[in-house]
Automatic annotation (TrEMBL):
GO MF annotation list: hydrolase activity
InterPro entries (UniProt xref): 5'-Nucleotdase_C_sf, 5_nucleotidase/apyrase, Calcineurin-like_PHP, Metallo-depent_PP-like, Nucleosidase_C
PANTHER family recorded: 5'-NUCLEOTIDASE-RELATED, ADL392WP
SUPFAM superfamilies the UniProt entry points to: 5'-nucleotidase (syn. UDP-sugar hydrolase), C-terminal domain, Metallo-dependent phosphatases
Calcineurin-like phosphoesterase domain boundaries: 7-194
Domain of life: Eukaryota
Record protein name field: Uncharacterized protein
Length: 463
């Protein structure tokens, strides 16, 4: 893609908005495995990277970013504008930026860029890792100095949404606009797991591609020329399904010409890492797919039903404990579907990457049976203080589930009424979707989804 951009005399920038850790066996087996995976991913050449909240749940993960940045791994392009780490320097503990605060560079076509990497204020409880609220960052002397000179465009990359709850771009955007009303501003966000796009004005755009690596977010725009009249810029976005078919189509290649030596080397290194971590040996075979949210709890194809009826009763076995028992767990600990076929340690950690601990106590039966209903009625946070991590993860899950529910319920309503919401969304009957996937309704003009899909079925009844 960079070669194609060069042929056309345009720039292509590749950015990453954070959260490399927690998600699959490669990065969830241990802090060391996550570091090893990062060593492999570092073979890719990014223009800007930012840190995510999952890189801050373990001090070792943030320390690895800090140390590798000092070694020059990312060429000064890993940006942590508002995240500090406490390290030892000359026998004293000092708080310093995890990586670079900002970057100024020129693109291949000679355009000047001023870039920042920002994380929302997720209120970490660790004393050795701190996050400065973006509202305070916007008043820092070094930040104001960094934005004083007008580049060809500002590039803001960060692990937070473009709008809504936990979106904290506004103070930074306002600070830039107070000095440079017409300089283009490109914002690339993340965290909430939904595809979304919004324009703050006619010379800015904020794109959030979705969760995990299911989507590649793509933004295109013309830039002002020397005779700039200050008018609106033509800014567009597209959500690409992250798979080989999409990649080959947009690169103009096929299965014989798409794969590069670098790509094959990365695939080989990841496969070797999986073998070294012993996460690719099957435990057994899954007879059919189980889904996290397509079916209500109690349905035989629900992951939560499988967990409650089959897994927990066998795993939590203690012959020394007599009498009836009740197991109460947080459904949020399960993060993904289970697919038919071999099931190994990597699948286990993909479905549930966090360490789980079970506490035992004895209660009168009449009281134990009321605990579950009371927790769901009041909310766990009302009964016991939760950690910032639990609050953040629960909020993301709610936002993502509401997004899925809206897609499915809109589709069902249109179908029951005899309408054709999918045909309308994609312009003509011949483009009517045939596969399941995301159906995005964002705040930017035109169609965003690269491939039309039927919404994924969703059930709100998960408890």
């Amino acid at each position: 893609m960079r070669a194609k951009a060069a042929e056309r005399g345009v720039d292509l920038l590749v950015v990453d908005a954070g959260d490399h850790h927690d998600g699959s066996g490669l990065v969830s087996t241990s802090p060391e495995s996550a570091i090893a995976a990062d060593n492999i991913f570092a073979q890719l050449t990014y223009d800007v990277l930012a840190i995510g909240n999952h890189e801050l749940y373990k001090y070792e993960s943030a320390l690895d970013v800090y140390q590798n940045n000092r070694r020059g791994r990312w060429g000064g392009r890993y940006l942590t504008s508002n995240v500090n780490i406490t390290v030892e320097d000359g026998g004293k503990a000092v708080s310093v930026p995890v990586a670079e605060r900002f970057a100024k560079f020129e693109t291949a076509q000679g355009r000047k860029v001023t870039a920042f990497g920002v994380l929302f204020d997720c209120e970490l409880t660790r004393s050795n890792l701190t996050i400065q609220a973006p509202s305070k960052l916007a008043h820092e002397a070094w930040f104001l100095d960094a934005i004083a000179d007008a580049p060809d465009f500002f590039l803001l990359v960060g692990h937070m949404p473009g709008r809504g709850l936990t979106s904290e771009w506004t103070p930074l955007y306002d600070a830039i606009r107070s000095l440079h009303p017409k300089v283009p501003v490109f914002v690339f966000g993340g965290h909430t797991h939904v595809r979304d796009c919004v324009q703050y004005d006619d010379r800015s755009i904020a794109l959030v591609p979705g969760r995990y690596l299911e989507t590649i977010g793509f933004v295109s725009s013309n830039l002002p020329n020397a005779e700039d009249d200050g008018g609106p810029l033509d800014m567009n976005r597209r959500y690409l399904d992250a798979n080989d078919v999409s990649y080959q189509y947009h690169t103009g290649t096929d299965k014989d010409t798409f794969y590069t030596p670098l790509g094959r080397n990365i695939s080989s290194a990841l496969a070797q890492l999986a073998q070294d971590l012993n996460i690719d040996t099957p435990f057994g075979k899954v007879p059919h797919d189980y889904f996290l949210s397509r079916h209500p709890y109690g349905h035989p194809r629900s992951v939560l039903t499988l967990l409650a009826d089959k897994i927990l009763p066998e795993v939590l076995e203690d012959e020394s404990r007599n009498g009836s028992r009740i197991i109460i767990g947080n459904a949020g600990s399960i993060r993904f579907d289970v697919f038919k076929g071999p099931f190994d340690r990597n699948d286990e950690l993909t479905v549930s990457p966090f360490t789980s601990a079970f506490l035992y106590t004895r209660l009168p039966a009449f009281l134990a049976t009321e605990v579950f209903a009371e927790m769901n009625r009041a909310g766990a946070s009302k009964l016991l203080p939760t950690t910032a991590r639990e609050d953040v993860e629960d909020r993301v899950t709610r936002i993502y589930n509401d997004w899925l529910a809206d897609q499915w319920e809109e589709h069902v309503a249109a179908t029951l009424l005899g309408g054709d919401d999918d045909g309308l969304a994609f312009g003509s009957p011949d483009k009517k979707p045939h596969t399941l996937g995301y159906v995005t309704r964002d705040a930017c003009k035109g169609r965003g989804d690269d491939i039309p899909h039927i919404p994924v079925p969703f059930s709100r009844d998960q408890v």
